[in-house]
Every structure is written in structure tokens, then in C-alpha cells.
Write a structure and sequence with these properties.
- With 220 residues, this protein is mainly alpha-helical.
- The chain has nine helices and three strands.
- It has a three-stranded mixed β-sheet, with helices on one face.
- A hairpin with a 5-residue loop joins strand 1 and strand 2.
- The radius of gyration is 17 Å and the shape is globular.
Length: 220
């Protein structure tokens, strides 16, 4: 299950606009800083986020999300400056918004384009999640604190869907300030800070922080 189209599309567009502004505020030293994404500097994190939306907005979808395509997105943008990527992201966000405006509920709940998993709605929700998470990676690397809370809901929604798809034991995510999300039909209750859960479930923090084990890592 994914969030409603009327929530995800404007939220995703707003998230990309905020990401572009985050890039514009980075210094050269911050651009080169190592991130918690293995072997990636801040510039590489940005290159992936921008490249991913450019690929989506131009319907270059073959292999999207695979290591090979992700590496290409980063490699194509190496050596470019923060403002250059911000401008490229602005253009891609405009194009993506125009595409998304044509989607109705039928399209939203239909299977995504060939080669992409899940429904179209799940695919766009995953873009919001990925952008929100990588903005936090950049803020962490540049000592700016966590990202604003706007992306918590789609992130937990997306993670709940992935955990269900992976067959994680039945659980109910009852995280602070958010609606509940069922994993594998619902079961044992997981409580706590939603940002901590996002970091734990993406391998960025120890699962013991929330009394969980390594199986919660959706990238395992």
C-alpha cells in the first residue's frame, strides 16, 4: 500500500525543490566531504539523486535502481559544482511534475513501467523516500542536523512496503507522531522515533537502537 496520489506528488515535488536549495548552500569543502554512503562524497550523493530524477523524467527507466545505473548517474555528474546540479534538478523537477500531473487514480494504482517493481504510486513514493533520506545523508556529512519531518511519513510507508515484500515478520509500526503501518499484515508493535527507525532500517544506525536485529535492514 502506498500513500495517496494527492499526498505523494506535491510532497515529492516539494522535496526535490528543498534538495536543490540544500545543494545551493553547500561550500566546496562540504561538497567534497565523505558521506555515510560507502565510498560516496556529498557530491556523489547529489549526483545520484539528480541523475535518478533526470532518468525518470526522461523515461530512461531500464535498470533503474540497480548498482550499475546508480553508478552511471554519479559518474556522469562528477566534476560538476553544486549550483550546476541544482539547476539540472530544477529542470528535471519541472518535467517530472508535468508528467505526474497527468496521472489519475487508475494510473496511480496500476503496475509501474516495464522493468520497475510495484505500482506507479509505489515508485513515486520511493523517489520521495530516497530524496529525503539522501538529503539527510548530506546534512549528516555537513553537520547540519536531520532533515525536516515532512518526509517521515512516505519514508516509513515505503519501508513498511519493502519489509512486507521481503517477508519480514508481522509487525505494526507505531512510531511517534505518525499513523500506523502494518508490515506483513501487522503484529508485534514497534515504537519509537521515526527518523531513528528510518536510519536503522536502511543500515545507517545499529538495529539495537530500537531493539531490532539486522533483518530490519531493507538493503541487506
Amino acid at each position: 500500500m502506498t500513500l495517496e496520489r494527492t499526498v505523494v506528488i506535491p510532497g515529492m515535488i516539494t522535496e526535490y525543490a528543498a534538495f536543490a536549495e540544500l545543494l545551493r548552500g553547500l561550500s566546496d569543502d562540504q561538497w567534497a566531504a565523505p558521506s555515510r554512503c560507502e565510498e560516496w562524497a556529498v557530491a556523489d550523493v547529489a549526483g545520484h539523486v539528480v541523475g535518478q530524477l533526470v532518468d525518470v523524467s526522461t523515461l530512461r527507466l531500464d535498470g533503474l535502481g540497480t548498482p550499475e545505473v546508480t553508478d552511471r548517474q554519479v559518474r556522469e555528474r562528477r566534476g560538476r559544482r553544486p549550483h550546476e546540479l541544482a539547476e539540472e534538478l530544477d529542470s528535471a523537477t519541472k518535467a517530472a511534475g508535468e508528467l505526474a500531473a497527468a496521472f489519475d487514480d487508475g494510473a496511480w494504482n496500476a503496475p509501474g513501467p516495464p522493468g520497475t517493481p510495484g505500482t506507479l504510486g509505489q515508485g513515486l513514493e520511493s523517489l520521495w523516500f530516497d530524496t529525503y533520506l539522501h538529503a539527510d545523508d548530506i546534512r549528516d556529512a555537513t553537520s547540519q542536523g536531520h532533515t525536516p519531518p515532512d518526509g517521515l511519513l512516505p519514508s516509513v510507508s515505503h519501508i513498511a512496503q519493502i519489509l512486507t515484500d521481503q517477508g519480514w515478520p508481522a509487525a505494526t509500526l507505531r512510531l511517534d507522531g505518525l499513523e500506523e503501518f502494518a508490515v506483513s499484515g501487522g503484529g508485534r508493535v514497534v515504537t519509537g522515533d521515526p527518523m531513528a527507525f528510518i536510519l536503522v532500517s536502511t543500515g545507517r544506525a545499529a538495529p539495537s537502537l530500537m531493539g531490532l536485529d539486522d533483518s530490519v535492514n531493507i538493503y541487506r
